[in-house]
Amino acid sequence: MERLQKVIANMGLTSRRKAEELISMGKVKVNGEVVKTLGYKVSEKDIIEVNGEVINNDIKKVYYLLNKPREVICSVSDDKGRKTVVDLIDTETRIYPVGRLDYDTTGLIILTNDGELTNILTHPRNEINKVYIAKINGILNESDFKKIRKGVVIDNRPLVVDHLKVQKIDREKTTSLVEITIHEGRNHVIRKFFEKLGYDVMKLTRVSYAFLNIDDLKSGEYRTLSLKEVQKLYSLK
């Protein structure tokens, strides 16, 4: 017997948190009856419906690594008709992105239908490193590094910067390429971080996620993750 929200997430339909919301909203049925109780336990023999659709527990798990282009939404669909990351993957399997990148942010994002792995990768306690390259309109100085060491507060909470390095400085254009490593997943947190220091982010790319990196993938290209890579991601729990 497993908790209903965990079973839904493991089937790849959505995250566990979203599954809990669907249950509370009365969108989930077990054996034809609406269940609103979080933690309700089900077995393999139970028929589970989400939004009127019976979900299949035998769906094969799939895993993709995408180099997300600019002006693409990190979502399954978009009510404004904009292109989504799911549109870029050639698969008949229902998949969704793990976490988000901003509309204008490029780089590495994982897409899957594995709810359990999604929960591992997005849970704050697992502190999974993410590396970004930011092009900013200015040159970081010693005063900025002192502020960073003290802790830059964003939305009433300090951002922990695991590593920061200036890769390149263009003094003629007064711009810098900065590599920054964090393990948080707050919305727009990198852009807000540099804004707090007095800089605008002109370009932002995520180049690695845990041990994964973009490698030679061009913008819009993707590849499947190997079994060894998936197992290693599970080990991050």
Q: Compute the CA-based radius of gyration.
A: 20 Å
Mean pLDDT: 92
Put simply, the count of helices is 6
The CATH topology of the largest domain comes to: Alpha-Beta Plaits
Descriptive tags:
Alpha-Beta Plaits; elongated; 4-stranded antiparallel β-sheet; 237 residues; alpha+beta; Structural Genomics Hypothetical 15.5 Kd Protein In mrcA-pckA Intergenic Region, Chain A; 9-stranded mixed β-sheet
Summarize the structure in words.
By secondary structure, the protein is of the alpha+beta class. It folds into three domains: 2-54, RNA-binding S4 domain (Structural Genomics Hypothetical 15.5 Kd Protein In mrcA-pckA Intergenic Region, Chain A); 63-125 and 215-234, Pseudouridine synthase I, catalytic domain, N-terminal subdomain (Alpha-Beta Plaits, 2-Layer Sandwich), CATH 3.30.70.580; 129-209, 2-Layer Sandwich (Alpha-Beta Plaits), CATH 3.30.70. It is 21% helix and 31% strand. The protein has six helices and 17 strands. The chain has helices at 4-10, 16-24, 115-122, 142-150, 189-197, 227-234; strands at residues 2-3, 28-30, 33-34, 41-42, 48-50, 53-54, 63-68, 96-97, 106-112, 130-136, 152-154, 157-159, 161-170, 175-182, 201-209, 212-213, 222-224. The strands form four sheets. Strands 7, 8, 9, 10, 13, 14, 15, 16 and 17 form a nine-stranded mixed sheet that branches. A four-stranded antiparallel sheet has the order 3-2-5-6. A two-stranded antiparallel ribbon has the order 1-4. A hairpin with a 4-residue loop joins strand 13 and strand 14. The chain is elongated, with a radius of gyration of 20 Å. The protein starts with a strand and ends with a helix. The mean pLDDT is 92.
